[in-house]
Amino acid sequence: MSRHRDVRNLDYDEEYDEAYDDDVYGHSVDDNEYGVSPGMEQYLYSRSRENSHGFGLYLPTSEDIKEEDEVNGQLERQDSDDRSRHDSSSYEKPPLSSEEETLLCSVLDELRNILGDKYSEAELTRTAITHNFQLEASLNALLNMSSPTPVAAAAAAAVTATTTTNQSLPQREKRPRSRGGSTNTPAAEVKQLSLSSRQPQNQGQAAPPGLSTPEPKSQQQQMVVTARSTPVVVATPAKGAGTASSKVVRGFVLDSEDSASPASYNNSVSTEDQEAKRSRSSTPVRGNNKERDKESTPSTPLAKPPPKIRDKTVDVCSEYQEQRGSGKTLLNLVVVGHVDAGKSTLMGHLLYLKGNVAQRTMHKYEQESRKLGKQSFMYAWVLDDTEEERSRGVTVDVAQRVFETESKVVTLLDAPGHRDFIPNMITGAARADVAILVVDASTGAFEAGFESGGQTREHAILIRSLGVSQLTVAVNKLDTADWSEERFREVKHSLRQFLKTVGFRDADVVYIPCSGLTGENLVEPSKNQNFCAWYSGPTLLQAIDNMTVPERGVVRPVRMCVGDVYKGQGSSMCVSGRLDTGYVQASDRLLLLPQGDVLNVKNVQTDRAGAMGSAFAGDHVTLTVGGVDPSVLHIGDFLCDPAHPIPLTSRVQGRIVVFNIIVPLIKGAQVDFHYQATTEPARIRKLVSQLHKTTGQLVKSRPRALVKNTAALVELEFTRPLCLELFRDYKDLGRFMLRSSGSTIAAGLITQVCMQ
């Protein structure tokens, strides 16, 4: 009610006059005219506080303190010649582009490093712009603007430096005086001073460490040392120059008092020295006396030698004879062929008949496949062990199993046959020594896989291009043709003509009729009367046992391509793959490329029974490694001997054979480069020459395009460095494939690694 009572008693005329009073309007209200808390009062503006919270408090009101130099213990003001590095506010830098600003900043930094604070920012900037941002021209102009006094001033400064040196080194002996007892001037004594330790010491005098006694006057090297820390002045004459001397100021040759003209200075600097000056600011460039530079330049520390693969030397040949000499030899076998040709069923049944699969496991596969309505796939599940492969009924990745014959330990690699998984097939074929080509002999199926678009032709070309020369052709599903000899001969005749064109010799190819589902002629000879009537050859297992094992590079440097990476027990990581060359044992050190990290081998596991923690060339190994970040391990990387690393390059020259392609290959074409377990995009950088497909002779230089069924020498370029070996050095590692748009377009050999 009090509020309403005040309103009723309000005099509106008085309030109206005060509100529009000229003296009050626009002024701040006094503190006693309103009520506010002390905490809020600090945020209100008031002129009575004399701008106690204004920005003026943060602006400097006094002059800067002028710096003074300390000379001989006394403080003296700087001379008018010593100017501040900072400019006055009146100087304005002319407008420059971004590129010119960058050049200007670079030149100014170089000039400050050489000249110090002797010249102002305006002078440095004006000189650099006038001489078009050239460091040498700007430096010459600044040195010639206000030249220092002649030798007397330099000598006086040098005497000061000599005095300081003598005080810090009291053990220094006195310098012998010149003949005739004449007293040398300070400048002459300075010329006798040498800071180089390369001069021979005089007989009968012991020079303190780091200093050398002067030579006779005829061979004496002159050197001027100023008291300023920058620039450093070192003077050394060239041999045979007599008394003429020149001095070097932070790498820039200056003439002596006898020849101080700019023309002689320019002539004394060689082109090689000028190039060296532009390379790096912190690297001093000496005069044109190369022998003097070689002596005066401090020796750089030698690069750290690469670590050894092992501390103790191992006789690899004796170890191989001791561990593998009396046992069975190792053979790497890959199984290829068209999709649905029965590869997994064939080899799964062979493993079951050899006793590598337990009866209980086989019964489990039979029951599970019957539930899915795929009872015929029960042997294929021995190799197709993933859920995706079993549900789709096709092999996706390369399966690996081991079985033994009478004389060999065979590592089986079951490659996928679908065209979508050709890269995986190439990875498996690159790790194999020999191959089995499975074809479907049923009516219509062989023609579908062998004609254009089928994988039988492409797989045969791929394995031959990857170095496989021994081949066993398994004519599968011949039971569907009632073991017809005519059908077998028809398939054999078609394949024989084709394999000859690919590069297989008749002596290296064996044809085996069999049935993967029924197991006929796999391990034991068939007892079918229709089959035994016309065939009496070896079984499939005998044909595998008769294959020749290639020579292993056991004594060569270690080369291993990483095929898989996974986490082992504890914190260790495991990498697996085929050891192409060399010998590896536990506690070895291997170099991981292209990352460049050195890792330690903790354990070595192989597929052979009774292995002693070591592996030889040709083995499929699993290495437990440590001492490296798991994030740097990738499929396709290489492990090698640290003392003999594999070359790294982003350009390579290779000899290729172009397959049956539709679009010709031209310069700049984008392709997929397949090398071991690596798949990398590449570009055809240059078509060097076209070669004869059979003889390899030059047909045409720099062709414009490569059509089908031609051979050529091309240069490939990659987006990142790859680990590649030449074919002449490592035949297994010198092969590659080129693919584009889902089909293989060429195969080649690495002939030259273009080092950059």
TrEMBL record:
Residues 12-23 have a biased composition (Acidic residues). It is found in: Cytoplasm. Residues 76-90 have a biased composition (Basic and acidic residues). Residues 199-210 have a biased composition (Low complexity). This is Tr-type G domain-containing protein. CDD domains: EF1_alpha, HBS1-like_II, HBS1_C_III. GO terms for biological process: regulation of translation; translation. Residues 215-226, 259-271 have a biased composition (Polar residues). It comes from the Eukaryota.
